Amino acid sequence: MLTRLLFPLIFMACYAYSMQVYEMCPGTPFYVPRLPGHDPTTSNVQFAPKGSSRPEFILKGTTPTDDRYSFKDDTLFIPALSESDAGTYTWSGDTRTLKTIQIVIKDCAVPQVVVFGHPLKLSIPTEAYSLEYQRPSEKQTRSLWDRTGQSVSQRGSQRGSSWVAERTTYADQGSYTFRTQLGVEVSKVQVKVRADVQYYNLDDGDKRFDTFVPLRPDQINVFFLSKQEFYDPEYDHSLLIVEHGSWITENDLGIQISLNQVKDGVNIGLLDLSSTNVGTYKILDMDRNIVAVIYLSGKELAQDYRYLYPIIPAGLAILLLACWWYCCCYNSDSKSETPSDPADATNAQPVEMQALASTDSTAA
Q: Angle 343-346-347 (CA atoms, 0-180°, nearest 5)?
């Protein structure tokens, strides 16, 4: 009785242990391995798709049952793996199982970082027929391009051997997949957009800085963080100076910003720059995504001296107290102490003369 219960468990454990697992990228050619020594012409291959427990014959002897497969080099050959090829493959002969393998299709997307506002450029593989796009938070895909030459999407277009989208925004983040005409994945790119980081030094001479962002004026928010502010990631000390394209006047920083709408975006200008404007400027879109960061630097002597102003009165007060103590207290103490040397010298002279007179009278 115990043997009957243990036998299925032992069989399943040995079966799982003997099964080889292959993690493959989509579009990769694959030869289904077999046991060496057995005649493939008298064997069959069964396939159970991922999530299914019903295997089906895809190779009987040397004849595939599906046009996607072929018999090549004495085994089953898959020219280009796709998501539908994930599952279990079993070689069988007569009534026994000869070999079992499992194919896992993994995500082989190549990461690509694009600066906000810069073009996105993707190389079109030779065997690619179409390009589809999928947002990170969505399951639905949409077609962007195909070999028919017609622009499926206005977002981008083919230029030579590349597909190009101008002025990338955060809405362009996601996966871009090139597929064959049969829908097999050829290549996949995972696009991530980052802020455009710019540096400007006031010492270069120009007191104006301009940058372009592909947004509408009402989508623009600008924050300013002074260089003297201590950056705390848990609490942002940045001051909002432009909100939805409107200037916030409740500040005394002397910052002047111009927003000029042009084709496909807005030119943002920092005007009449001085040392008091040194710091970090963050430009955000309406979803609070950072689209650009401007680090403004330069000599800050005037600004550094400004922070010494509160110390000057205290220093003057200490100096005045020192002068008063020296003039009043120290000199008064000095005058109250009568010097002894002059008095002794005055009294000593008559004594000396008297002694001399006594000597003269004795001699006489």
A: 90
Expressed in angstroms, the distance from the first to the final Cα of the chain is 161
Whether residue 65 is predicted with pLDDT greater than 60 in this model: the reply is: yes
Could you tell me the CA-to-CA distances from 58 to 52, 92, 202, 268 in Å, in that order?
A: 15, 12, 71, 63
Q: Mark whether 206 and 294 lie in a shared domain.
A: yes
The total domain count for the chain is: 4
Q: In what order do the strands lie in the sheet with 70-72?
A: 30-31, 75-78, 70-72
Containing structural domain, residue 310: 305-331
Give alpha helix (H) positions in 127-193.
none
Lowest mean pLDDT among 237-241, 258-262, 359-363: 359-363
* pLDDT single digits (tens) 133-150: 999 888 899 999 998 876
Q: Which two tokens stand for residue 90?
A: 């079993």
What does residue 247 show for φ and ψ, rounded to 5 degrees? Answer: -75, 130
222 found inside a domain: yes
> Left, alpha or beta for 195 (phi > 0: left; psi -120 to 50: alpha)?
beta
Do 236 and 311 belong together in one domain?
no
Same domain? 94 vs 128: no
pLDDT at 236: 60
Q: CA-to-CA distance for 213 and 101, rounded, in angstroms?
A: 53
- Give, in order, the Cα–Cα distances in Å from 42 to each of 31, 63, 98: 18, 11, 12
Give the three-state DSSP class for 21. Answer: strand
pLDDT for 251: 57
Q: Are residues 166 and 217 in the same domain?
A: no
**CATH code of the domain in which 290 resides:** 2.60.40.10
Same domain, yes or no: 92 and 132:
no
> For the whole model, what pTM was predicted?
0.69
- Co-location of 134 and 39 in the same domain: no
For residue 235, name the pLDDT band (cuts at 50, 70, 90).
low
Strand partners, 57: 46
Please provide residue 347's backbone torsions phi and psi, each rounded to the nearest 5 degrees. -75, -30
Give the pLDDT score at 173: 95
Based on the fold, state whether residues 136 and 218 are members of the same structural domain: no
Length of the chain, please? Answer: 364
Mean pLDDT computed over 1-23: 59
